[in-house]
Every structure is written in structure tokens, then in C-alpha cells.
Structure prediction request, 303 residues.
Amino acid sequence: MSSAPQTPAMLLPLFVDGKGREVAVPDFGGMPIADTHAHLDMLDDPALALARAALAGVGFVATVADVTEDAWRTYDELPSWLANARELLVAEGREDVAVPRVRVVVGAHPHNAKDWTQDTEAEFRRLAADSVTCAIGELGLDYHYDHSPRDVQREAMRAHLTLAHEFGLPAVVHLREAHADGLEILREVGRPPAGCILHCFNLAPEVMEPFLELGCHVSFAGPATFKKAEEVREAAQAVPEDRLLTETDCPFMAPEPFRGRTNEPAYVVFTAARLARARSEEPEPFARHTFAAALALLDAERR
Ligand SMILES: [Zn+2]
Prediction:
């Protein structure tokens, strides 16, 4: 069982603020919300996180697995995470609630570009053929941390995008302080026909615009809820509804009112609620189109 007894986290109450008061679950009229970018393998207890996500109204999770680290673990353990999440719900008397559908995004993070070799590409090819794989990533450029040399990052980004074309999979793109170079490479290799997500977008609309013109989807995480993030919410207003996505990027960047905590898929409902408000949309139609956009892109039949 991955629901280890030593973990302090509990199934319920779902959301408690800094003062220990319970926070209401945002209401989307019964429509599910998608977390299109999670790192379940970085959470203490992925099964518990999935059960909590289920109770929060999350219906779909795309989790990222890195072939330069231990991607195989996600593929091996996902069935038991799902089964244990179901058991937790049943034990709580909530067998009426469905465990989220989970699919896997596989690739090498730009931090690990230096470890992208023929061997990791072979591992990628093996895992990409698994029917649970839905996208390639997260790929891209991170010039903030520079954990891999920039030219090596650019080469790995080209290689990943080329594989996205070859496998007919969407690409999940991480760009930090590198949007101009990222855009250039995307134009050079071409946006993968199956789609391309600019993930965890947290900048101004002008930065996003050329990616929208290329036909990219744009996904928003916790930063869209931060108090001073008006320009991020302006960007979210400009995304066509069939290309707007919600995510957590957990365990990083929890949304308000949980900023600073370990993030988990359940918290995506707070980002969704804030985005709906920013776009002056009712929660239910917002949930409907963002969930439909997530499934159309990340839960499609293999092409
Ligand atoms: Zn990520």
C-alpha cells in the first residue's frame, strides 16, 4: 500500500486554510476539472492525492515521467496508485466518486537535457509506445536555472519536437526566461500536428501571442491566482476556449489560498475557479470547455 501510515496527509477534510478552518470546494455544477500537468511521482502518496483529487471534482490528470530519472516507476506503479485511491474512497463511503483518469507525459525535463542520450531516447521510445502515454514532455528550455548548457537544451528540444512529430503525440513545453529561443525552435521544427501545450504560463499576453498564432494550447497553474498576477489573468482572457487548459504543476506552486504549501492535483479547482472569474465565465461552462479541451488533446485515441 502506498497510503503509508506515517504520512500526515489525510483524505478529509479536503481543504484547510492556514488558520485550520475548512475551505469550501469550488462548485462547478458537477462538471469535472482537469489537471493537465502534475508530477505524481514527486508526491509522498500519489494514491492519497488521487483520492483527494477525486473528492475535489478532478476528473483527469496528466502526470509527467522523466526518462532521465525514473520514468519507469510511474508506468509500473500507476495501476496500484489508482487501485489504492479507489480503496481509500470506498473506505470513506464514497464509492460513488470516480478516481480521475490518469495518463502519462514522457520525456526529459530541460534541466536534464544533458542526460538525453541514445539510451534515454531508446527508453523514451519504449515508453512512448505504451497506451497510457498521451504526450511528450516536459521538453523545452530553462535559462533561469541553466542546469544543462543552453546549446544542449536547444538540441534536446529539437529532438523532442521531432519525436512528437514521429509519434503523433502532443508536446508539453516548459519555457523559463527562454521564450524567444523556444519560439524560434518551435517554428523551425514545426508545431507537432497532434498539438502543443505552453505549460504553466505566467507572463504577459504579448509573450503568449505568437504561440497562440502557431496554434498552441496554453495551460495555467497556481501563479494565475497570485494577487499581483493581473497580466497572467489578462493572458488567460485572450486564449480561445478550445485551447485553454488548467494544471497544478504539483508539487510546485500551489494556488491561493494555499500558496507555499506542497501542491497536489486537488488544488487545481482553485486555479480553475480564479480563471473562470478572470474570464467572466460561469464556473460550469468554464469547466465544460477546459475539460473537453484537455481530453481532446491528452486523452485522444493514438493516432
Ligand atoms: Zn512540470
About this structure: Residues 37, 39, 64, 138, 249 surround zinc ion (CB under 6 Å).
